[in-house]
Write a structure and sequence with these properties.
Elements (H helix, E strand, L loop, with lengths): L6 H17 L11 H16 L18 H13 L8 H14 L2 H12 L5 E4 L15 E5 L2 E8 L10 E7 L10 E7 L5 E6 L8 E12 L3 E2 L5 H13 L6 H16 L2 H6 L2 H28 L8 H23 L18 H8 L9 H12 L5
Parallel strand pairs: 1-4
Antiparallel strand pairs: 2-3, 3-7, 4-5, 5-8, 6-7
Helix pairs in contact: 1-3, 3-7, 4-5, 4-6, 6-10, 7-9, 7-10, 9-10, 10-11, 10-12
Length: 387
């Protein structure tokens, strides 16, 4: 399959490439799982927004450029190809943003989306609870209606970068006595509201990547609800589709990792001689990344023809999460003992960054719905197999 681009798309690619070449940070930013790095990434996001590069697919009046999905894929290819910083406001821009586009009121879009695009508001996700991880329908955190406000009580956990965020979005049980996916509402909660307590949870690398969030009689305006009362499950499933589909994990991210892996293989001749199977593993990873990219273009073409994807996003999620894990496991095999070096290690060299990526890749088959659950969805909804 040979991709071809229109003159307009080629001009767009050239514009993106030129802007990145002129504006990329001169030095790598600190990890966004630290306060210093988080604020550095927020400033970079603001710079992207100033030139309308932060959310290219959004309408111009909401902070974007009105690009289509093909142009977004092109932007992502140039962005990752340039080695640009990882995006820190993904929960807001890539998950909540599309949800608001589809279900939000005109006032909610005007209020939240431009600030989200500019990263003036940074967002955390409030799905998981201590007894509701992959089984999101088991959510028990309550949101009881009191006039024009909800009163929130309960706990969320594993909220990515909630320790630094300004807002949280998530599901709360708003209908007393309801069970499973009934009686839930999708709410946006300011994390500086009275009654909110945030406690950091350290990741495997020792950084404050996650947090648990407690709600004690927290008052949230009804105006902060997305969608109808008690219909939060329907809204959340759309958000989960964005998370499992193309938006959260664009193909360019994995193509960039595959290119780095090829370079690591070329720089590790002794490892390749010691284990001849490593060459095949690297090739398999590179082909997997390219196949995922071509599949994404095929999906974009289908969407452009008015088709819908639905449960197929579960296939997408399995592909990118297991590909990411395979690439980093292959890198660990190439690096041998050097794989244990942290990014900050003076002797890190070409090993720098691979350990962080490897540790993060372990979570890929878990977040956005475990891959076991995704296989159940595929079996039941796409293949028609019995439960």
């Amino acid at each position: 399959m040979q991709l071809t681009y229109t003159p307009k798309q080629q001009a767009f690619r050239a514009e993106v490439r030129a802007w990145l070449a002129h504006n990329l940070p001169r030095e790598p930013l600190a990890s966004y799982d630290t306060r210093e790095g988080f604020e550095q990434h927020r400033a970079w996001e603001a710079k992207l927004f100033e030139s309308r590069w932060s959310m290219v697919m959004w309408p111009a009046d909401l902070g974007g450029r009105g690009c289509d999905l093909t142009e977004w894929l092109i932007f992502e290819e140039e962005y990752y190809g340039a080695g640009a910083p990882m995006r820190v406001n993904q929960n807001g821009q890539l998950l909540l943003g599309p949800t608001l586009m589809e279900f939000g009121t005109a006032e909610q879009k005007r209020r939240f989306l431009p600030r989200m695009a500019a990263s003036l508001d940074m967002w955390a996700q409030g799905w998981s609870e201590p007894n509701a991880g992959s089984d999101m329908a088991a959510i028990s955190s309550k949101a009881l209606l009191d006039g024009d406000h909800y009163v929130l009580n309960g706990q969320k956990t594993w909220s990515t970068r909630a320790i630094f965020a300004d807002w949280l979005f998530g599901l709360f049980r708003s209908e007393p006595g309801s069970t499973r996916h009934h009686g839930l509402s999708f709410l946006m909660v300011p994390l500086d509201a009275p009654g909110v307590t945030i406690r950091p949870i350290k990741a495997l690398n020792g950084k404050d990547a996650f947090a648990e969030v407690f709600f004690d009689d927290v008052r949230v305006p009804v105006a902060n609800r997305i969608g109808a009362e008690g219909q939060g499950w329907h809204v959340a499933m759309a958000t989960a589709g964005f998370e499992r589909g193309l938006l959260l994990r664009s193909p360019a991210r994995f193509q960039h990792t595959a290119r780095k892996l090829v370079e690591l293989f070329k720089a590790s001749p002794q490892a390749a001689e010691r284990d001849p199977a490593l060459g095949d593993a690297v090739l398999d990873c590179w082909m997997g990344a390219e196949a995922y990219a071509l599949s994404a273009y095929h999906t974009v073409g289908r969407l452009g023809r008015g088709e819908q994807i639905g449960a197929e996003s579960s296939i997408n999620k399995i592909i990118w999460s297991e590909l990411d894990l395979k690439m980093h496991e292959t890198a660990m095999r190439l690096l041998g003992a050097r794989a244990e070096l942290l990014t900050s290690a003076a002797a890190g060299g070409d090993a720098a960054g691979w350990l962080d990526g490897f540790l993060f890749a372990q979570s890929g088959p878990i977040y956005a719905g475990t891959n076991e659950i995704q296989r159940n969805i595929i079996a039941e909804r796409m293949l028609g197999l019995p439960k």
